[in-house]
Design brief:
Length: 139
């Protein structure tokens, strides 16, 4: 693989708006692509992984998901964005980022630009948050 790839849910209007922001405002050499149009097998990803969180596949084959994927994207961007990426990797910030990311993922259909299509499938919600809707253990 020659370039890093950031994969998001193209069926989600909120996710698509965020990806458009990345493409317009964040100078990165990474490909930003909806998982529905990505060669998941070549990237070593599954649909289930992509439905649960944004994904990062580095040019070196490294992988990250959720806020860790966002930190990797920012880390390979312009100078100011690299600082933001480093901040997101700082252990106390990272510890807070995962619950915040899960909340956004669970409620993305309610956020600006979101639509009902943004709601995660029930199976994915239960896998992430359990049948009660409370966050489960992180992987």
């Amino acid at each position: 693989m020659e370039t890093s790839t950031f994969v998001y849910d193209g069926d989600c209007a909120f996710c698509t708006r965020c990806a458009q922001f990345i493409e317009r405002r964040i100078p990165t050499g990474a490909r930003v692509v909806p998982w529905q149009f990505a060669d998941l097998a070549a990237l070593g990803l599954t649909e289930a992984e992509c439905e649960e969180a944004v994904q990062w596949v580095g040019a070196d084959g490294s992988r990250a998901a959720g806020p860790d994927a966002i930190a990797r994207l920012l880390g390979e961007s312009g100078p100011a964005w690299r600082v933001a990426g480093a901040g997101l990797r700082f252990p106390p910030v990272r510890a807070a980022a995962w619950p915040a990311y899960r909340w956004v993922a669970r409620n993305r259909h309610r956020l600006p630009g979101g639509t009902a299509a943004c709601a995660l499938p029930q199976e994915a919600r239960e896998r992430l948050y359990g049948p009660t809707g409370r966050p489960g253990p992180t992987s």
